[in-house]
User: Fold this.
Amino acid sequence: MSIAKKIAHKAEAVKGGAKKTVGRITGSRRLQAEGRGGQAKGNIKQAGAKIKDAFKH
Assistant:
């Protein structure tokens, strides 16, 4: 997997975490939920990339 994709997956997870935190601070449940979803999506993509890399070598 390319470095650019790995960075993009990490950035997606970080963006979701930030959104979740902002939602918690502002009291917005919708924003918290969106953040959790984005964070989970990024983490799943990272895990998939690690599995691909493990079988590639």
Q: What stands out?
A: The first helix runs from residue 3 to 26. The chain has a mean pLDDT of 93. The helical segments are 3-26, 29-56. The CA atoms of residues 4 and 47 lie 15 Å apart.
